Amino acid sequence: MYCTEDPPYADAVNYHEITEFFIAWLRKNPPPPFDQWTWDSRRELAIKGSGDDFRRGMVDAYKAMTEQMPDNGMQCVMFVQTDPNVWSDMVSIFWAAGLQVVGAWYIATETTSELKKGGYVQGTVILMLRKRPAGDRPGFKQRILPAVKREVDEQIKQMLHLNSETEAKMGAPVFNDSDLQMAGYAAALKVLTGFTSIGGEDVTSFALRPRRQGETTVVDEIVGQAAETANGILVPDGLDAETWGAINGIQRFYLRMLDMETTGASKLDNYQNFAKAFRVADYAAIMASIKPNAARLKTVTEFKPRDLTERTELGPTPLGALIIALQEFLADKEPEAVMANLREAVTDYLGLRPKLIDMAQFIAAKARQAETRRAAEAIAGRMRNQRLQ
After folding, report:
1. CA–CA distance, 2 with 126 (Å, rounded to integer)
2. Angle at Cα 163 formed by Cα 161 and Cα 166, nearest 5°?
3. What distance in Å separates the CA atoms of residue 286 and residue 296, rounded to the nearest whole number?
4. 129 touches 100 (CB < 8 A)
5. What SS3 class is residue 77?
6. DSSP E strands: which ranges in the chain?
7. Which helix (H) or strand (E) holds 266?
8. All structural domains of the chain with their residue ranges
9. d(CA 296, CA 176)
10. What is the reported pTM?
11. 234 and 156 in contact (C-beta within 8 Å)?
12. Each residue's pLDDT tens digit in the chain (389 positions)?
């Protein structure tokens, strides 16, 4: 048995409504053999919404398919989601249904064009599932995390290799950073669904247990680790890997999206998904626009003093101090005073100076405004040649 399905993930797709659209056209005079069909969307049976009821409905549906398939049967699931919480739910659903992900591929299904404006998906994760083998395979977080990291590493590196080959032959890569991040989630599913218990708890009981508000489960932690692993590998072009490894959170988000904007990225969901991956509390605070198809970061000159105080996410960071230095330089403040202020603002300035130089050079290469690029290059040069007592 080979079954292909595209599940109703949370509230993203209301398949019963889509079915009713086609029923309206076909039910009056359907051609053979469709004239023998029951032309009804069965709206009352549709799996809708999110939360515990959604997960239980999905478990029931997948368990029914699993019971009907032979031991050598396979299910192919087409899945499109970049929300880590929904990926955590999919782990629980497959687990409780007695399924194991044995293969995961990311397929580029859409290309960007002027005719396509909106929240359309650019790629789909293809998951291949089999019945989970009989027998116990207990899993513990200390054992699972290294296995997830290895699987994510392998998946991302394969895709980056394909990107390099495609760019060399066609002039452009096939996968963007969001695609690669989603592939990391799929790789995590492949590892997780092979276990029959986690932390001593049976996976079916774990999957069906109602979520408590604000709860972070061990599965959430592991899926989050998959995202962090993927993002750790995906160093923005032009930034040193050591710099990327030394920063986190809001700094990674700003530099990542600054790099993506140079390729024309402007879809709000890209910013939202990376904000979740980098655990940014308030990404909108550093956005100049949050329009669905015209989102963009604030430029250096668009940051207000209140955006860079100690009470904000960005303000206390080395990148925040660098942005203030750039603003002062652009305001024709004495260069010596600018550099003195930067040195005073950054804790462990001596240790972080190579990272600050790297970030300044990155901004010099990526910023849209020519004056900002010149200021960033000047500050990088002054830090490089600075005599420190």
Report:
1. 14
2. 110
3. 9
4. yes
5. strand
6. 2-5, 74-79, 99-108, 123-131, 138-139, 197-198, 201-202, 287-289, 296-297
7. none
8. 237-389
9. 17
10. 0.70
11. yes
12. 455 555 655 555 677 777 788 788 777 788 888 888 878 877 777 777 666 777 788 888 888 989 988 888 888 888 766 566 677 777 778 888 889 888 877 676 655 444 444 444 456 778 889 998 888 888 888 888 888 888 888 888 888 888 889 888 888 777 777 777 777 777 888 888 888 888 787 777 777 777 777 777 777 777 777 877 887 888 898 999 999 999 988 999 999 999 989 988 888 878 887 887 788 989 999 999 999 889 999 999 999 999 999 999 999 999 999 999 999 999 999 999 999 999 999 999 999 999 999 999 999 999 999 999 999 999 999 999 877 65
- Run of H or E residues at 67: helix 51-68
Q: Which residue has the tokens 């202020």?
A: 341
Q: In sequence order, which residues have a C-beta less than 8 Å from that of residue 123 and are 6 or more positions away?
A: 80, 106, 107, 108, 109, 110, 175, 179, 182
DSSP string, 104-145: EEEEE-----TT--SS--SEEEEEEEEEPPSS--EE-HHHHH
Structure tokens belonging to residue 192: 């997780």
Q: What single-letter amino acid sits at 246?
A: A
Separation of first and last alpha carbons in the chain: 74
CB 65 within 8 A of CB 3: yes
DSSP calls for 334-364:
-HHHHHHHHHHHSTTHHHHHHHHHHHHHHHH
CB 10 within 8 A of CB 50: yes
| CA torsion through residues 63, 67, 70, 71, sign | positive
Token pair of 293 as six digits: 């198809």
